[in-house]
Amino acid sequence: QCTKQLLSERFGRGSRTVDLELETQIELLRETKRKYESVLHLARALTAHLYSLVQTQHALGDAFADLSQKSPELQEEFGYNAETQKLLCKNGETLLGAVNFFVSSINTLVNKTMEDTLMTVKQYETARLEYDAYRTDLEELSMGPRDAGAVSRLDAAQSQFQSHKDKYEKLRADVAIKLKFLEENKIKVMHKQLLLFHNAISAYFAGNQQQLEQTLKQFNIKLKTPGAEKPSWLEEQ
Predict the structure, then answer these.
(1) Which ranges of the sequence are coiled-coil (predicted)?
(2) What are phi and psi of 118, to 5 degrees?
(3) Any idea which fold 26-220 has?
């Protein structure tokens, strides 16, 4: 019956129950998820570029430090360039910590919170199809002859219709609640993450080490212990 209903809807012959407000919200969620996935992809690319930059600066600082010891005539010049690269490395690692926190939070929002709501939406859409299938069946039987067998089939169809109607209405209510809470959670999460991202990026490119470190303290971000082979952001991708 569900296959019959689905085909009749696709070919424009069957009637379909539509909750316009809810379906508009669902489509908006799907579009928002696609856009956030794009932001997540770009933010991950940024972490990869930053990591490569920090690694290059670290190697360059080591090369300058080595040349400072072996080139007496340019010891001072190589020395202060080595120190500059070390400072840039430290700031870069701090920025990576902030960007990784941003990536992790957006990933949770997109692939857990939004995905959980969309799973309920899929259940709702299946229940809507089943509801319409049994509604159509009941309507067809109601218009048919009323012999003994038909009355029995009508009673069975009425019972099945009521069961699927209850399921559909429950899931419709569940989706409405989840969409409401998701919107509230999204605003709360993104307000914090966008502030973090802005403050960290601004401080880094302004060369403000103190403000950069203060940003991490403000958002309770812990950096991985120095000396580890790879920063945590790379391991979590």
Answers:
(1) 154-185
(2) -70, -25
(3) Substrate Binding Domain Of Dnak; Chain:A; Domain 2 (1.20.1270)
How far apart are the C-alpha atoms of 139 and 159, rounded to whole Å?
13
Q: Could you state, in order of their start, the residue ranges of all structural domains in the chain?
A: 26-220
* pLDDT at residue 149 greater than cutoff 80: no
Helix, strand, or coil (residue 110)? helix
Residue whose token pair is 């692939």: 111
Q: What is the DSSP letter of 150?
A: H
CB-CB contact of 96 with 201 (8 Å): no
Confidence of residue 228 (pLDDT cuts 50, 70, 90): very low
Q: CA 142 from chain center: how many Å?
A: 47
Lowest mean pLDDT across 127-131, 164-168, 195-199: 127-131
Name residue 212's amino acid: L
3-state secondary structure of 111: helix
CA dist., res. 34 & res. 21, Å (int) = 20
pTM over 0.85: no
Whether 227 shows a pLDDT value over 50: the answer reads no
What ranges in the chain are assigned the alpha helix state H?
Answer: 2-10, 20-70, 75-108, 115-142, 148-205, 209-218, 232-235
